[in-house]
């Protein structure tokens, strides 16, 4: 295999028979240059994504994520495909790998996030939730840490979202409408155009999608334990929080929906990240 592009010492892009592949392995590209042959003994994983948009985002994402986190994410996805027999959208490699990495990093920092849709997920997506629980076992075996059950719910939602026929058209329409309304509020607040190919934009949109599902479903989540952290984020990201207040006003007037502290907290964080990465 000939190197086409080097992403970092551990990840390269090659092309075989016109098909682009993402190749991973520890030290794979050390002292290598594009056009040189790979040592195939160092290859640990090969990703071939037919969706070019997903492939581009995956390349962007994996540069900053440790190989073991990518590997466990891929193992969970492979297990899910085998267990459910369902075709999953290639974007699952972005959303799930990113989430698993973030969940592990949060846990190691002593931060836990409650899943506002845990009960609903367990009820409406029992197969995916069971896979999520198995995923926690896989992560524990690999990294000797036990993530909370909330994370099994998050993993289940990512899997359900990636299934090709999971949502009916009416829900898709309503969810998309809410997402677009919120994106517009952020765009006009900061007078920016988003880079829709950015992984940070994708993370933001994924968060909005889960939020819109909750809004359309008429559910919310309130946890006073988030108040102290919200105050810290509010102080640190004042402009982003101001935007969240605008969103809260809009949702209250149009949908009679009141943002909880947990929702304000994570909307603020996601808005800060997407704006910073868009304007930097």
Summarize the structure in words.
The protein has 280 residues and is of the alpha+beta class. It is 61% helix and 8% strand. Strands 1-2-3-4 form a four-stranded antiparallel beta sheet, covered by helices on one side. Helix 3 packs antiparallel against helix 6 (149-162), helix 7 (169-190) packs across helix 8 (199-216) and helix 10 (238-255) crosses helix 11 (261-279). The longest helix has 22 residues, at 169-190.
List keywords for this structure.
PTS-regulatory domain, PRD, 4-stranded antiparallel sheet, Transcription Regulation, Sacy, Chain A, 280 residues, alpha+beta
Please name the CATH architecture of the largest domain: Orthogonal Bundle
Strand order of the largest sheet: 1-2-3-4
User: What CATH first level of the largest domain would be assigned?
Assistant: Mainly Alpha
Helix content: 55-70%
The main β sheet shows up as:
4 strands, antiparallel
CATH superfamily of the largest domain: PRD domain
Task: Count all strands and give the number.
Answer: 4
Shape: globular
Alpha carbon gap, first and last residue: 36 Å
Radius of gyration over all CA atoms, rounded: 20 Å
Q: Give the class from helix and strand content and strand pairing.
A: alpha+beta
The CATH topology of the largest domain is given as: PTS-regulatory domain, PRD
How many discrete structural domains?
3
Number of helices: 11
Query: Which whole number gives the mean pLDDT?
Result: 85
- Unreliable spans: 164-169
Order of helices and strands: EEEEHHHHHHHHHHH
**Strand residues, percent:** 5-15%
